[in-house]
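Thread: Ornithine cyclodeaminase family protein, structure

OP (GT): Posting the sequence first so everyone is looking at the same thing. Length is 317 residues per the record. Can we get the structure tokens written out before standup tomorrow? I want them in the notebook alongside the other entries.
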Amino acid sequence: MLVLSEEETRKALPFKELIDAIERMFRSNCVMPVRHHHEMEVPGEASAVMLLMPAWVPGDHIGVKILNLFPDNHLRALPTIIGSYLLSSGKTGEMLAIVEGGELTARRTAATSALAARYLAREESETMLMVGTGRLSLNLIQAHAVTRPLKRFLVWGRGYEKAEETSKEARGLGFDAVAVDDLGAAACQADIISCATLSSQPLIRGEWLKPGTHLDLVGAFKPSMRESDDEAVRRSFVFVDTRAGAAQEGGDIVQPLASGILAMEDIKAELAELARGKHPGRTRVDEITLFKSVGAALEDLAGAILAYQHASGQVSG
């Protein structure tokens, strides 16, 4: 059995291959039971969350992710997401690998957003605004750059120094990135806006979105959290990774549904329908598209299989 560290997991999941692997998995007959989602009290701190996410492709692979999300871990200089992925054979049940869960989650989350952008963002998109400076920010910048010809990256965070630090890291990876302190002005310039925050109040206003913008909402993973306002929802063609997940967990969908701003039939498609060609995605250059991601177990399974194949020498690279 292979045990992959954070660094080994990162090297085994190049974004182009990972995006393609997730696309194939969304087209497959992968089985995804409802995930276990348990909120856990942490005395004196924000509540933590335990996630158990099983998935399998019959006769192929079986996997389950065990993940703990501790929002206040930044106070201890620890990552917010800590966990592991257990990958097994779908033919024998034999354990094949333990994959580091934090890196797997970060990379598959970014890759899923980039996959959605392949269908929803304008092909000529050049400017991306990254809202948030956590672990996902650099992953999202790298992944979106695979599917669209992005040339300029704006980074906004609640603290300008952190935004500058993230943009400096992005420049170190070869991206033309700058920190910004005016979120509204930056949003007005962006072709793609990607948000990965723990915000409980809307950050992106619909009035800021120019025609043709693609809004990628990755954070706000609880019903009480939100990254976009009602006007952004009203102006957008709305897409989700899975209807079942987004309608129950993501505040950017849950709250508009509850208030009547959005109806379930207003959600144009989920990612499987885009991947299978059942919905064309963006149909006009002036459409504003909104994609809400809360994470799906098949994304982890696709990533774990790819990581195992790289690490075991079944694929080169």
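GT: Both are above now. Quick notes for whoever picks this up: The CA atoms of residues 156 and 180 lie 5 Å apart. The domain at 122-295 is CATH 3.40.50.720 (Rossmann fold).
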